[in-house]
Design a protein that fits this description.
Layout (H helix, E strand, L loop, with lengths): L14 E5 L3 H7 L4 H22 L3 E8 L7 H24 L2 E6 L7 H14 L5 E9 L1 H17 L10 H6 L11 E4 L18 E4 L9 H12 L9 H9 L1
Parallel strand pairs: 1-2, 1-5, 2-4, 3-4, 5-6
Protein name: Ditrans,polycis-undecaprenyl-diphosphate synthase ((2E,6E)-farnesyl-diphosphate specific)
InterPro entries: UPP_synth-like, UPP_synth-like_CS, UPP_synth-like_sf
Cofactor: Mg(2+)
Length: 251
């Protein structure tokens, strides 16, 4: 990842979420093993981070490994864990150089203790950075996230600290893994598929969806800028009419 240069502020989403799809198909097309696609995808991660930081995006969430990905062949899962571990060690310095903080969300209990320790170390080492937040969703699923939030609230009710009728959508949202961050404004999926695959199910309720036919390793600077430009051209209504939105903008 190159040293990031400041950019002129523009109309951009506060929070971008990306489903990084197509690594295996990228590799297969080139007659390479699947892990080669995942390794090539690291360059795309660096490119997208650079564009988001330049554009002054506040939060970038990358769907790196889903709850369901544990069902993949053991050899592939092992290679992904090794790549994740290596990236945590090698990229932390670059994140610090660019004032980017790292957060990791998901069920960490399934990861090897050494990898869990590397996650905590990377988060601590970048915790003082404030330019923007890079959030990695690993062993993450939207259903898991909602369930763990419900469990937290259930424990509060059980302890007598909360009444069932006190539970509101706003309160539940604060208990999600992303509860202290703005909701995603834009969700991008690469690889040509048109689904969200159990990613941030609650949080994406009003996000703009953008689908790219590019496989993730090919989704670089220009592709990310095109996605941001598309977002800037949209009118977000949140249940209102266009006339109401336009009137509010004029007020």
């Amino acid at each position: 990842m190159e040293k990031i240069k400041p950019a002129v502020p523009s109309s951009v989403p506060r929070h971008v979420a990306i489903i990084m799809d197509g690594n295996n198909r990228w590799a297969k097309k080139r007659l390479l093993p699947g892990v080669a696609g995942h390794k090539a995808g690291v360059d795309a991660v660096r490119a997208v981070i650079e564009v988001c930081a330049e554009a002054k995006v506040e939060v970038l969430t990358l769907f790196a490994f889903s709850s369901e990905n544990w069902q993949r062949p053991a050899e592939e899962v092992g290679a992904l864990m090794e790549l994740f571990f290596t990236a945590l060690r090698s990229e932390t310095k670059r994140l610090n150089e660019n004032d980017i903080s790292l957060r990791i969300i998901g069920d960490r209990s399934r990861f090897h203790p050494e990898l869990q320790a590397a996650m905590r170390e990377a988060e601590v080492r970048t915790s003082g950075n404030s330019r923007f937040v890079l959030q990695i969703a690993a062993s993450y699923g939207g259903q898991w996230d909602i369930a763990q939030a419900a469990q937290r609230l259930a424990r509060e009710v059980q302890a007598g600290h909360l009444q069932p009728e006190d539970i509101t959508p706003e309160l539940l949202q604060t208990c999600l893994a992303t509860g202290d961050l703005p909701l995603p404004d834009l969700c991008i999926r690469t690889g040509g598929e048109h689904r969200i695959s159990n990613f941030l199910l609650w949080q994406l309720a009003y996000a703009e969806l953008y689908f790219s036919d590019l496989f993730w390793p090919d989704f670089k600077h220009d592709a990310m800028r095109a996605a941001l430009a598309d977002f800037a051209s949209r009118q977000r209504r949140f249940g209102k009419t266009s006339e109401q939105v336009e009137a509010g903008a004029r007020a």
